[in-house]
Structure formats: structure tokens, C-alpha cells
Amino acid sequence: MEKKLKIGMFGFGCVGQGLYDIFTKTDFQAEIQLICVKDKSKKRSIDASYFTYEKDDILDNPEINLVVEMIDDAEAAYEIVKKALLKGKNVVTANKKMVALHIEELVEIQQQTGTSLLYEAAACGSIPIIRTLAEYYDNEWLYSVSGIFNGTSNYILTKVIQENLDYPTALKQAQELGFAETDPTADVGAFDPLYKLCLVVAQAYGKFIPPQEIFNYGISSLAPQDIQYAKEKGLKIKLIAAVSKVEDREITLSVMPYFVDAKHYLYNVENEYNGVVVEAAFSDKQIFIGKGAGGHPTGSAVLSDISACRYDYRYEYRKAHQQEAISYTRHYPIEVYLRYQDERDIADIDFYEISEQHIAKEFKYVIAVISLEQLFELKTDLPQRNIFIANTGRRVAREVLLGTLENKIAVSDFI
Ligand code: HSE
Asked: How far is ligand 1, taken at its centre, from the CA of residue 172, in Å?
């Protein structure tokens, strides 16, 4: 039976206003009772009677049965969402960081309270990947889910590689267009797609992996030499988040730049568009492309979740309840292009199978196999070094990492 929705909204920024605008342009039946915002001095585009500055005006209001959370402070969002669920209200959120950091607890509260927590808008904007994974692929064993999960970095890469724009100008444009997070490090440092990957993995494999456990590396160290290298080889650079099956019940995850050639499904996914490639045992390869950022595209995903709440739809996490547990590994080899400035920055990295190396005063790089675990161990340190890393996409046999000592080569051996 269709439920009458009485909505309390949190946040009236880019996504909140996009959603409100969609409401006014459609005949969707829902009543926005209150909107909680932080900034009292900000001029609002709609009537002042909609607004409150006190979150409990919504959370303690028994008439409000749906909380729509669209603020960008993950910790404040967590408090709001948790209290709303505990008060028996359904919640729709767009906050990927908050969900990624607290998913296990929030899913438990959802189950205990019989409420629903939906977050389609938190992953890949307008692409309905969360519900698709939750419903369509709920019984199928997936080989991989990978893609461009961040509109801002894809916009920047498109502009600097295809249109020769400089990086700061491209980033500024992405900010002006409302694609970037308040702190764009989340985008260019690959944290935003990292959080989205956690949500995708929860649905695709029923596994709640904390973001701190996953290797992520962004595009902020991208240099003209990297762009020149890619162009000369007919490649593009894309920031790709990926989860792949590496053994029967074992998966590996990463978020990092990749070189992609013209045959790759994501090669032509440009600007703020996102693209998700799902590889499954029986349905084979499928690709989803759509706008991954911006008020209206993200607002449309929020609207779809709100609509689903009319029928008490909830994610069931069926794969989390499967008998055979899935394990997560970082002990996996990947082949990377690693451009560096100073040998000291790579002295502590073990390379296996170096296939190419170039050493000139202004341009030094190595193409070699490396262990994902080792990159993970250096995760917090790497952004301080002047190096750019891109996965070449070549699949490497796991055995390369075995017999470590014999195979391990320090780049200094070649210098
Ligand atoms: N900053 C995000 C992006 C917004 O660029 O993809 C949508 O999550």
C-alpha cells in the first residue's frame, strides 16, 4: 500500500535545491514539512517558513516519517541518520562517507527497527547502481564491478587530457559547476570514489569493508609528462574504483588511476559522467553510464529513493547472509606505470617484473608489477611524494608475488 510521505530534509545545498526543483517540476506527491540548515545568514530561494536550524525539530517530530539527509558533514549526518532510524523514521541519504564509515552499524539498526536506509544518490549520481546490484544481481556471482565513480576527477581528466586545459582551471570549473565536494581533496585524492566503492561492495558481495582497509590513490600528482606519455600511446587516464573476484570466494579492491585504450568500455566516458561495468557469471558484461555529479542528476536519485519509501522498500543485503563467507585480500599483483622525480621516493618499493624504465632529468618512470598490499602500506605516505601511479590494466598472475626474494627487484639495481 502506498504510504503518505511527510519529509524532513537536512541540507539545502546543490543536491537539496536540485531535489526541490525536481519536486516543483513533477507531480510527485510528498509533503516537505521542514528543512534543517546550518547557516542562518544565507539567503534562501524558497519561503523562510520551510527552514529550521534545530535538528530535533525534525527528528522529534512524530508526523515526519521520512528523513532526507543531504549535508556534507559525515559525522553530523551520522548522528542525524542514527537518531532518525532509532525513532522509527525511514532515511534517504546522499552521504557516501557517512554510509561507508558506519554501514555495518546502520544496517543493524535498520534491521532492529524495521526501518529503511536508502542511499542510491550516494554512489554514482544518477546511475541506479545500488538498487540494481541489490535487486537484479542478488543471486548472481559477480566477477567484478568497476568504473568511474567520481565526476569531478573525470571532468578534470577530460579537460586536461582532451582539451589541454590546465589542472587548476579544470578543478575550478568543476567546483563552479557544483560537482566537487566542499574539500576537493575528497575528489582528486580518490576518497569520494573510495566511499562509493564500499557501498557497491556491500551490495555486490554482501561485505562491509571499512574504507581505511582499501588502497586509494588520486590524480593530484598528475603531471604534463604523464599526459604526454598517455597521449603518445593512444591511451586515456581514468580514475577507476574496482572490486574483482580473484579466487572462488575472494575479492580484491582498489581505487586508482588507470590507463585505458580505445577498446575499453570507459574510454569514452567523459566530463562529469560516471560509468560502471558489471561482469557477472551469466549476464556477462553490462555497462551503465550517466551523470555522476550535479544537483539534478543526484537529486533524481534521491527522488527515486523517496519514491521507493512510499512502498517501504529496503535493501535486504541478501549476499551478506549467504553461507560461504567471502574474504578480502590485498595480496595481489598489479602492473603500474610509476612516474617519479627522486629515486629516494621509490627506494622502499619492491618491484617485480620491470618491463620498461625511462630515466631522464625531467621524466623518470618505471612500468613494473607491484603488490597492492605494499601500496596499501604506503597509503598515507605516497601523497607526500612526487609520484604519479597508474594501473596499466594488464592482468598479472598471482604467482609473480610468490618466491618474493628471488623475484624482487629494486629500481636502484637498474640505475
Ligand atoms: N563530488 C562528487 C563527484 C559528487 O564529483 O562525483 C557526487 O558524488
From this structure: 14
Amino acid at the residue 249: R
* CA gap 181, 183 in Å, rounded: 5
Q: What is the pLDDT of residue 405?
A: 44
| Given 55, 97, 159, 196, the catalytic residue | 196
- Is the pTM above the cut of 0.90? yes
How big, in percent rounded to 5, are the helix, strand and coil portions of the chain?
A: 40, 25, 35
Catalytic-residue membership of 196: yes
Residue 400: band (very low, low, confident or very high) from pLDDT cuts 50, 70, 90: confident
pLDDT band of 409, cuts 50, 70, 90: low
Q: Which residue's CA is minimally distant from atom 7 of ligand 1?
A: 293
Q: For the residues of 226-247, what is the DSSP string, one character each?
A: HHHHHHHTT-EEEEEEEEEEEE
| Cα 368 to ligand 1 centroid, rounded to whole Å | 31
